[in-house]
TrEMBL record:
Any Pfam family the entry gives: 4HBT_2
Signal peptide: none
The entry's keywords: Hydrolase
Taxonomy, superkingdom: Bacteria
GO molecular function terms listed in the Swiss-Prot or TrEMBL record: fatty acyl-CoA hydrolase activity
Similarity comment text for this entry: Belongs to the 4-hydroxybenzoyl-CoA thioesterase family.
CDD domains given in the database record: 4HBT
Protein name: 4-hydroxybenzoyl-CoA thioesterase
Length: 138
């Protein structure tokens, strides 16, 4: 089952000159949600000591509504696929009040060793991330 973050309140300082959350800020909110997910099972210190790290390989984001000051956003996150050296997390951003979908993203990561060479996804990681709970729309 996917993981839902606490609500994110959109402030005017989160917005660009046009008055809405821009792409860079949305990417940051998605990253914050992924960290919130990871912090349910590990700590930053533990991750830094690990022999395997991850880096973003690809980001695919579709925007379907504007996020503006005053909005309360909820981000759902879950694992949609796992390969030999990579995995993908899907995240949706919805308005907490209206249920309107604001963004739908899939972020693909690759696992690297300390020398930045691709390595297999550790077996233990296959159970760290909750599975996306709507496989039909994954």
């Amino acid at each position: 089952m996917s993981h839902e973050t606490p609500r994110y309140h959109v402030y005017p300082t989160d917005c660009d000159v046009f008055g809405h959350v821009n792409h860079a800020t949305m990417i940051t909110l998605l990253e914050h949600a992924r960290w919130a997910l990871l912090e349910t099972v590990t700590t930053y210190r533990e991750l830094r000591r690990a022999d395997v790290w991850t880096v973003v390989r690809h980001v695919d984001v579709s925007y379907t509504a504007q996020s503006v000051p005053g909005d309360e956003l909820v981000i759902r996150s879950g694992l949609v696929r796992i390969g030999r050296t990579s995995y993908a997390i899907r995240q949706t951003v919805t308005n907490a009040s209206t249920g309107t979908l604001h963004a739908d993203a899939t972020i693909t990561f690759v696992c690297l060793d300390r020398a930045s060479r691709p390595v297999p996804v550790p077996d233990a990681w296959r159970s760290i991330f909750p599975l996306w709970d709507d496989p039909v729309s994954a």
